[in-house]
Amino acid sequence: MLRTALRPRLLGLLALMVAATVGCGLLASWQWDRAHRALTSRDDAPAELGDVRDVLEVGGAVTNDIVGELVTAQGRFDPAEQVLVAGRRIDGTEATVVVTALHVDLDDGTTARLPVARGWLPTAEVTGADGHLDPSLAPPPPSGEVAVAGRIEASEAASDGIEGGVATEIATPQLVNEWGAPMYAGYVAQTSESAGLSPMPAAQSAFSRGLDWQNIGYAAQWILFGAFFLYLWGRSVRTAYLDELADQREALERELDGGSVGGSDTAPATSSAATPTADKDR
């Protein structure tokens, strides 16, 4: 099989497969490095990035470089733009998060909405007599100019819509349809005290929860791809080797068949020649 593997065509295929495997290894290393940075950054204390207007553009994506870091914002809460986000479990309690729009004045004179998760409270405290969530039972936001401090988080994936002031995710695509634009693409999870609400716990965003495992999975996939390329080359060598053995076997069988046919033609001729001689002697 070694002689087959050293043939020029298969050596060229090997070079191609090795190049593909090296490329997969580099991509796997890159994904692993991203996962390692994400995990390391979570072990460190959140960085204070300053005013949200200097950190994130309106409508700009919340990247892994800033997600979970601390920002500040100044503006005015709009009590009419507030939703309850149910279905959370915080500190072993069925919890509901209160999200309110903070109107932030931009440098160009316009105003943008910044969703702020002001805090959470037990779901029972905002459940009406009919057993459904009642947004009117949530603590109202403070009035006037306020300063907010919290973690910048990426929008959660939108699945269901907002009905009666109740949502299942903190999803800015849903909120912009409900409240209007312009709006920041992420939201701020408030870490400072708010009347009637407990501060938000760390990392409610599905983006920040899953990114490290996602990158680790990608790294494993690239390693498997690289191993598969080498497997293909080995399979190609084995197939070529077996094909050569089959060709040699067929050639040998043809030679043996040819010898057998020649021997059978000679035997009857000898027999027929001997018969008249025997008759003549008699």
Word description of this protein:
A five-stranded mixed β-barrel has the order 2-3-4-7-5. The chain has a domain at 48-207. The chain has helices at residues 2-5, 8-43, 52-55, 172-179, 206-281; strands spanning 48-51, 70-90, 93-105, 111-122, 145-153, 166-167, 187-190. Residues 204-210 and 269-282 have low confidence and may be disordered. Helix content is 45%, strand content 23%. By secondary structure, it is of the alpha/beta class. It is elongated. Strand 3 and strand 4 (111-122) form a beta hairpin. Helix 2 (8-43) packs antiparallel against helix 5 (206-281).
Overview in brief:
The protein is an alpha/beta fold and about 280 residues long. The protein is about 45% helix and about 25% strand.
Name the shape in a single word: elongated
Total E-strand runs: 7
Biggest sheet descriptor: 5 strands, mixed, barrel
What is the radius of gyration computed over CA atoms, rounded to a whole number of angstroms? 38 Å
Order of helices and strands: HHEHEEEEEHEH
In percent, how much strand structure appears in the residues? 15-25%
Give the uncertain stretches in residue-range form: 204-210, 269-282
Number of helices: 5
Instruction: Going across the biggest sheet, name each strand in turn.
Output: 2-3-4-7-5
Query: Mean pLDDT, nearest integer?
Result: 81
Span between N and C termini? Answer: 66 Å
Please bin the fraction of helical residues. 40-55%
Structural class: alpha/beta
